[in-house]
C-alpha cells in the first residue's frame, strides 16, 4: 500500500465521543453502528410506545400523519434490535420528543 492509500478504519474512530446525560450525569453509550445503520435500545422504544398505548402499526400510522416517514417494517426492525438508518432513529426520537441519544443502548 502506498503512502496515499489507507484503509477506512484509519480515518474512522471505533466509537463516537461519549457525552453525559444532562439529568443524571451518566455517560451516554456510543451507538452501535453496523453498515451505516444504528442499533437502538429495544426496551426504551417499547416503553415509549407503550406509554402512548400504541401498537407498532399505530405508531407508524401516527408518524405518517405527522409527516414523519417511518414504516411499520422500520418500527418492527428497530424493536427487534436490528440496525435502522439514522433517518428512522431521528424520526422516532422526534415522534417521542426525545433526543436520538436517548434511544441508544
UniProtKB/TrEMBL annotation:
- A single Gene Ontology molecular function, please? DNA binding
Q: Where is this region: Disordered?
A: 1-29
Question: Which CDD domains does the entry link to?
Answer: HTH_XRE (cd00093)
Which Gene3D superfamilies does the UniProt entry name for this protein? lambda repressor-like DNA-binding domains
The protein here is known as: Helix-turn-helix protein
Recorded source organism is Permianibacter aggregans
Query: Polar residues compositional bias: what residue ranges?
Result: 17-29
| Alphabetized InterPro entries for the sequence | Cro/C1-type_HTH (IPR001387), Lambda_DNA-bd_dom_sf (IPR010982)
The protein's superkingdom reads: Bacteria
Amino acid at each position: 500500500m502506498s503512502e496515499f492509500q489507507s484503509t477506512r478504519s484509519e480515518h474512522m474512530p471505533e466509537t463516537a465521543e461519549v457525552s453525559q446525560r444532562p439529568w443524571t450525569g451518566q455517560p451516554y453509550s456510543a451507538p452501535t453502528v453496523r453498515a451505516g445503520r444504528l442499533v437502538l435500545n429495544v426496551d426504551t422504544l417499547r416503553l415509549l410506545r407503550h406509554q402512548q398505548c400504541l401498537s407498532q402499526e399505530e405508531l407508524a400510522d401516527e408518524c405518517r400523519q405527522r409527516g414523519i416517514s417511518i414504516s411499520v417494517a422500520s418500527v418492527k426492525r428497530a424493536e427487534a434490535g436490528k440496525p435502522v438508518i439514522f433517518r428512522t432513529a431521528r424520526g422516532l426520537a422526534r415522534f417521542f420528543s426525545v433526543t436520538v441519544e436517548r434511544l441508544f443502548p
